[in-house]
Amino acid sequence: MKAMTLDTVVAAVHGQLIRGTGEHSVARVSHDSRKAGEGDLFFAIIGDRFDGHDFISRAAENGCRSFIISHTRWIQEGEAEGLDLILVEDTRKALQELAAWSVRDMGLLTIGITGSTGKTSTKDMMYYVCSQKYKTGRTLGNFNNDIGMPLTVLSFPEDTEAAVLEMGMDHFGEIDTLARIARPRIALITNIGISHMENLGSREGIMKAKMEITNYFDENSTLIISTGKDLLRRENIRGSYRLVTTGTEETDDYVIAGVRDAEDGGISFTMHHGGDEQAFHLPVPGRHNALNAALAVAAGELLGIPMRQAADALRHMTLTGGRLTMKKNKDLLIIDDTYNASPDSMHSAVDVLSSVKGKRHIAIFGDMYELGKDSPSWHREVGAYAASKDVEAVYAIGDEARYIALGAGEKGSYFASKQAFCEDLRRRIGRNAAVLVKGSRGMAMEEIVAALVDMERE
């Protein structure tokens, strides 16, 4: 973040400096009192289970002197002495306003990415492609909401030229907020699945929410979509902006062909565009990742990065942790795909598991969240899909996951908790196996991965 005076902050967030002078400068922002220190600007965010104002004294003890607050009830006699206090109506909105101001002030070229599945992998790919030409920043971890994305933007070094920003949501209006902050010139939508169905009502509702990423587009903006047998098709999209399609159909602007598993565990394919053909190799598993890569390649060409240069960038990429990460330990190959889960991504992960040669195939699944009233049938369908592939055993953990076990039939086994499953882990898994671990983020299935790794150390 570019250093700024408190007077500048006050103007950006439409606040009022009620204590201190506006001459002091801040160079970082924080909403975590444990990490806030000298030269930082602390936002006292009010959440569902906490009030950041309760932690101001802790931040001050760590050397922080500048604070964005929305009330003064926390101030005891002498407690605010020596502090700079900026009063706003809503600290969360103030954080968003400062991030929006920073995007404009830095002149950032922003690329927004959303979709039901694959958006984090696509973000990583876009980052590697974009970095071929620009000093690029990107969303880290799961910082893709109305607090995380502003914090991401405000963490970029002042010489950052481009920003690749993942935009998540589970309700209408959330992507609109993120798009208002980032004002993306290019937006990528990976797919329209069924995640968050219970909040958005239908796949059409999910698409409407995802399309909010175009709310601040103009005629110089571009939307890039991955097509197929899906709602994301040219005929379903209306707007004054440019539309670019990617996929496996001859009518797409960027056409993927010949996707195949490679000997190193990655995938290879070719891509055609405007008479040009380019070979690609990704060092990550999953044929679906060719679709994600095509989005990044199409965006790269809009930014002046040719396909051959994008291919070189993607050949050396790595994905954010917890996404189809292969961990080899003695006689086990552990496929860590624990970051999140939906029916579509479960299918893709099973396909990756089935593609592993020379090993027994075992799937360990946790609950999939926010699927609405049809959640049992979606879980049952995932179990049936896994059982139809070359999968020897399907272990299901959690409340809803019982339906995965039911769908898997004789191959399925159900456990109420991770602890129950991990008892006698070696007997359940055996040796010389490829083991897929996947579930929604709240299930913390990485604990299973850790248990498998520890088992192999014994």
Written account of the structure:
- This protein has 16 helices and 22 strands.
- It has helices at 6-13, 56-61, 91-106, 119-130, 148-155, 174-182, 197-200, 203-210, 289-302, 307-315, 343-355, 375-388, 402-407, 418-422, 425-429, 446-457, and strands at 4-5, 16-19, 25-26, 28-30, 40-43, 66-69, 84-87, 109-114, 136-138, 162-166, 186-189, 222-226, 242-247, 254-261, 267-273, 276-282, 325-329, 332-336, 360-366, 393-397, 412-415, 433-438.
- Strands 9-10-8-11-12-13-14-15-16 form a 9-stranded mixed sheet, with helices on both faces. A 6-stranded mixed sheet has the order 17-18-22-19-20-21, with helices on both faces.
- The model has no long low-confidence stretch (mean pLDDT 92).
